[in-house]
Amino acid sequence: MRALLLLFLLLPAMSWAQTVTLAMDPWPPFTEKGGKGVAVTLVRAALQRGGMQLKTVEKPWQEAWEGSVAGRYDGVLAVWYDEERAKALLFSEPYMSNRVVMVTRYKDKRDPQQLADLAGRKVGVVKGYAYHPDFDARQDFTRVESTSLAQSLQRLVRGEVDVVVDSEVAIQHWLHRNPKTAKQLHVHEKALAERSLYLAINPHTPKAEAVVNNFNAAIKAMQQDGSLLRLVRAQPR
């Protein structure tokens, strides 16, 4: 009888924990198959600290974003901010930062240093990504869309594009996993932009504002107590 009473008392607390379903595209080392990746780890830890559970759904980026806007998912796990996106979903405070850089083949003699140097070239991008307002607005180069960074880099190796633009961390991670290919490619040191990663929630998600506010508070607490940095450092390279 006492055990039954204890279970009854626990049920309200157990049922309170909200499961947040977030879509993500494969973008190692931030998001990886099987619910892995440094961004997944940080978001899961922050949500748990705020009394919530994380469920991930793996989709190509365009489908992840459009599905979140349509309400098929509660939101997206890792996204770059832009003003148009913020009209559709509620954005958290940033929880990670990364540099957007260019990568070319070593044998390419035309070494781009700035956006203007991309004029007339084929640039590999992931469909639906918002790289930076200045980059996104330019019309003087050809965008060759892929479903992932890995596909863009493979196209670069084959000579189907001249340049690939993406997160420096993600590019270096892919090159580390593909050492033979790494010898053929050159990552440019100068960044085109500094971008941060955000959690973005559909405003019609149950307790949407509370999800974002609790997440923000948890990330701030994790920064202050050092647990966020420890989680980042503990991730496999």
Strand content: 15-25%
Low-pLDDT parts are 1-15
Could you give the count of β-strands?
10
Judged by helices, strands and strand pairing, the structural class is alpha/beta
Report the mean per-residue pLDDT as an integer: 91
Radius of gyration from CA coordinates: 20 Å
The description of the largest β-sheet is: 10 strands, mixed
Cα(first) to Cα(last) distance is: 51 Å
* Helix amount: 40-55%
Principal-axis shape equals globular
Provide the succession of SSEs. HEHEHEHEEEHEHEHHEEHH
Would you kindly provide a written description of the structure presented here, covering whatever features stand out?
The chain has helices at residues 2-16, 38-49, 61-70, 83-86, 133-137, 149-158, 168-177, 179-182, 208-225, 227-234; strands at residues 18-24, 52-58, 75-79, 90-91, 96-105, 122-126, 142-146, 163-167, 185-187, 193-201. The protein is α/β, with parallel strands linked by helices. Helix 5 (133-137) links the parallel strand 6 and strand 7 (142-146). It is globular and about 55 Å long.
